Amino acid sequence: MRFTAFTFNILLLCASSLGITSFLNSNDQSRFKDILLSGLNSDDAGSLDYAIRGLTFLEFDIPNKDNLCQKLKTKLESQTTETLFHVGKASASLSCALQLSNTQKEKLETTITATNGVSEIFLATGALSSFGITLDAPKVLKALNTALKKDDSISSLGQAFQVASLLDGDVSSVFGRIEDVVVQADQIDGKMLQFEGGLSVTALVISGAYKLANTVGQAPFISKEQANKFAEYFVSRKSVQTVKGVYYLLEATSVLADNAFHIPVAITLASKAAVSKSEPKFQVKVTNILGKGLGSLTIIADSATRTLDDAVVLSQKQLTPKDGLFELDLMSSNPGKGVYRVALSASSSEDTRLVGNVGAIVEVKVLTKIAIEETEIGTADSDQSTAAKLRKIIYPKKLDGSLEADSHQKLILKFLLRDTLTKELVTVHQAFVRLTHRESQQEIFFVAEPDVNDAYKFDLDLATKAKDFLYLSGHYSMDLIIGDAVIENPTVWQIAELQLSFITPSAGQPKSSKAAEMYQMKPEIKHMFREPEKRPPGIVSNAFTLLAIFPFVIFIVLVSRLGVNFSSLSFSLSALGFHLSIGGIFVLFVSFWLYLNMFQTLKLLVVIAIPAFVSGNYMLTQIAAKRRGATKQN
Known about the structure:
five-stranded mixed β-sheet; 23 strands; Ribophorin_II_2nd; 634 residues; Ribophorin_II_C; disordered N terminus; 22% strand; 18 helices
């Protein structure tokens, strides 16, 4: 039996991958409308087109149609294929009385050649058909098939499906390519399918495939599971913010919501995801991905399985229709508290197009109320030399008087939690005991643990836990906190007033004052730089200084013995500038050695180096000119 139930749950889990978890609700569509209305103010033909056609998908009465038609008329003067495409599509949606000139018509017709590529064929045929011009189907189909041999990318195939859907005659050569492109879709988390290129490319391919299938009169090569995964992807992109993105999303979802082959079904919660004895029913909504009804349906709860232990509490139970929703009394099956996965299936005797209508999963919590029973509180000696002295207390009353305890004793609290519906003992996720010091408002929490019989016991040895209290004696209030995700009545119960006494670990400063010091301002932390290393003796520094100067002394001595020829020394402006600049550089180096840092030295060096370079260049030029003149005279 357990194996059968397990197998059944696995099959439902696999089937649930076909279900759509959400749909484009009224809030989403209202936000889309605002985005599209902002696009009507654009001067770009593409943005105008996407906004107008998007609002048409929303069945919204577009304002100022005459002004928009006039704006489109000014755009009609363009000769580009893309602009004519967008003007034609938008004017057709608005029923504007616009026509192409003979020149524009001939240009679009001559564009339909294989050499121009699939994209240009898509734009040209879209423009011509929008202006009511009959397409030459054999010519278009031949050019399209030839262009696809050169470029059969996913976006090109999507455009080809859109073009072929406009043609009369045999378009099976293009229709057969649907299977080729669908297998190239990328799967996301095993739940969604999309094409490389994102929302616009995926919407172009899927909407084109279903339009072409409608033209051919044959179901596209897209399985039910694939159709639902594509639908799940489109619904997941409901946060799109651009006019173009909203248009493509609405185009794809509109096609999937109304076609002759596949209608993805969204089964979603329409009420609180929780039931209880006072509110035993939950409701679901069954729609297409645009949130519209699907006619007369029968909704069956295949199973309701508790996630904690896989216990199945019902199977094959029909939901009751009510005000466009379907409701189920889950509490009639007497489920225990917990989270349940309810597998739902929708069927229709009239519509065979529904897909993703089997094994849709909704999660529902079964809530219950708990009662706190057999509560006892008291003290016992830590060495267990005497029996515990416990006093009974009934929720929600408070213990009379104050309970005293010291470091030689331990504090004991016992209680039971009982499900008021099933009368069974239960455990909860959160069972805390909070002790609050009245004077300082310092709080300390402890966890109450259940034993093997689900009876809770809190045992606090004051001697071992004194450090947690910071040895802070005094008056404490004791609260019991009970909470869980599946209980209706989370509780904070003030049980008793306590007088606790702790022994300080030393005769020094009392721990109460030490605790207060913890929250006082501490001394400012100042950064301490490492002290510089000890300098070498002065005699060592002087010796190295003399060694550094010694080569210069030798140079002076040698120059004085050899003699200096000042005959070639020039007193021109360039010579004086060069020598002064060189002298300045030497002075700068000495200053760097004495007190300047690297950055200051580099800045000053740049200032001095420029005149040194310019004056030096002029001086060397003059010297070279003198030498050439002397050579000619000789």
